[in-house]
Amino acid sequence: MPYILPLTSIKIALVACVKQKQESSCQAKDMYLSEDFKAWLKYAESWGADKIFILSGKHGLLELTQEIKPYDFNLNVQSRSYRRAWAEDVLMKLTKQASFENDHFLILSNRLYAQDLSPKFKYFEMPLEIT
After folding, report:
1. Which phi and psi angles does 14 have, rounded to 5°?
2. Are strands 26-27 and 67-68 parallel, antiparallel or unpaired?
3. Could you give the percent of the chain with pLDDT greater than 90?
4. Beta partners for residue 68, in sequence order
5. How many CA atoms lie within 13 A of 36 on its CB side?
6. What residue segments make up the domains of the chain, in order of their start?
7. Residue 125, beta-bridge partner list
8. pLDDT digits (tens, 9 = 90+) for 69-111
9. Nearby residues of 6 by Cβ (< 8 Å), 6 or more positions away
């Protein structure tokens, strides 16, 4: 009898960074100070995310516990080609963590952050209108 690996899918939340940040190095989940960011993290948790990552304009894909320094960088004002390269870097890092064919993605970001990511995911949702 052949052994068949079960298809397992997990829920992955991608939460956008925000401008308001701590003034010293800390874990990524603690860097961003806005109430919106805190609400998005809670939303991702209540959605039942198995994994939560932060989409950082400067760093790309961040683990919640990754140590980072404060920075001032806005992906929204970068060129289209820069945003495409940023998305490719995020997707490359994400391939080690997820299956774009089987996993379900929750994207809590504006459309510019998501526009080159979401087409790669078979199952995704963007429930919030973030501008």
Report:
1. -115, 115
2. antiparallel
3. 90
4. 26
5. 14
6. 11-122
7. 106
8. 999 999 999 999 999 999 999 999 999 999 999 999 999 999 9
9. none
